[in-house]
């Protein structure tokens, strides 16, 4: 028992306090913010490329049915509205520098987190519904041109892809992004606390 008490006493004396300076935390947090900005910019770029590709397919091929044109319009409206939302969110985290305006930046980051939550829970279902409706309208004209196997394959792949994106992928991305942004907000709050209270 005495040996245990000696080990415990030695352990208590050997506490190491790990502290990061505000500068180190700030550099790490800025790196993470730049990662979020890059990811957001790539999302916007991907949506714009999708918009241009779908508009190109719509304009350069001839379609006879009004439903196909309606389907493409639905695709383009859904993509454009989502791109506008993504761009608005991107501006929230890129317009303020933390070192110059810490409170505004932190408020922008919290608003960004709330907007992302809304995007994945509300806007995402609008987007998925619009894409599904767009596929239904375009399939009315396109499917009869395919043989039976191609028809089944086109419908099955489309349905499974939308189902996968709406369930597993959406939840995984939402969880990862929520944790990442929450951790970032916590870091910036700690940095603000360290800067405002001198040691």
Quickly describe the structure.
Helices cover 85% and strands 0% of the residues. It is mainly alpha-helical and 199 residues long.
Please characterize this protein's 3D structure:
The protein has 199 residues and is mostly helical. It has one domain (22-196). The protein has helices at residues 2-13, 22-60, 66-94, 102-142, 148-196. Helix 2 (22-60) packs antiparallel against helix 3 and helix 4 runs antiparallel to helix 5. It starts with a helix and ends with a helix. The mean pLDDT is 81. Keywords: Membrane, Transmembrane, Transmembrane helix. The chain crosses the membrane at residues 40-61, 67-87, 124-142, 148-169.
Keywords:
mainly alpha, 199 residues, membrane, single chain
Give the topology, please.
Layout: H1 2-13, H2 22-60, H3 66-94, H4 102-142, H5 148-196
Helix pairs in contact: 2-3, 2-5, 3-4, 4-5
Transmembrane segments: 40-61, 67-87, 124-142, 148-169
Keywords: Membrane, Transmembrane, Transmembrane helix
Provide the helix percentage: over 70%
Overall tally of domains: 1
Structural class estimated from helices and strands: mainly alpha
Integer average pLDDT: 81
Largest sheet: none
The H/E string reads: HHHHH
- Radius of gyration (CA) equals 25 Å
| Low-confidence segments | none
State the helix count: 5
Straight-line N-to-C gap: 41 Å
Total number of strands = 0
Tell me the β content.
under 5%
Shape: elongated
Keywords: Membrane, Transmembrane, Transmembrane helix
Transmembrane segments: 40-61, 67-87, 124-142, 148-169
